[in-house]
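Field reference: sequence -> structure
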Amino acid sequence: MAGRPTARRRGIPAGYIFLLPWFLGFFGLTLGPALASLALSFTNYDLIGTPGWVGLANYVRILTADSKVAESVRVTLLYVALSVPFKLGFALAIAMILNRGIAGLPLYRALFYLPSLLGASVAIATLWRTVFSGDGLLNKVLLQFGIHGPSWVSDPDTAIYTLVALSVWQFGSPMIIFLAGLRQLPRDIYEAASLDGATPWYQFWRITTPLLTPVIFFNLVVQTIDAFKAFTPAFIISGGTGGPINATLFYTLYLYQEAFGYLRMGYAAALAWLLVIAIAGVTALAFLSARRWVHYEA
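Structure field:
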């Protein structure tokens, strides 16, 4: 009987058959195109002619000779630096309010999560541009108080902040994660702290925040990556130009312009791979810093 295959061995081919769609998707739609774009980043390609090998010329130009790259990096970093902490702070505040056990919690949770469910869609970005236009809803509300607001999306001093506000408005996803984390915190610690006379503010900084650091870290990494990849809001609000005066020229938007506006696919591929490297580097730094401030139960 030693030569007969066991039931476990007979099931292995069936397992690979069920995994076949995933393998096809991964190699055909993810890994294959990624490797192709890496190869194209070393070429001069315009979708029409044959790719011509240029070596590191695209990367050298990006890092040394393209002023719009530096401008797009500045705008992107400003967006990330503002949107991520404000979004996480607002999400945590709402989660703590909901965690008090208010009536109608499922309804509030669904309503707050709805903007995140819609995502950075074209419809939402178009609505946002309408709200913050010169004759938009915000200025109509301000006019009731005698304030004449500018065209927020057309002013280079305020356009980026409308995109930050849109990001903060979509706080539902991190809020749900924060709420789940808050529900797991042991109540006996808070009861003991209250008996010792600890104020709610002291409890928040000395108990809630340290115990919640793994959840904060998870949300921080996910939201930072999403902020670096933001594209649709800037594209819709600026009409694809990154204006006014490059005030909303995200790195991803400039990448899009190079690829589909000027058909410089090789150059755009190099821009994309530098973005991948930058996101990987920021994520790695976050994990290295986590050793100092993230406290796990063990």
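Note: Residues 7-40 form the longest helix (34 residues).
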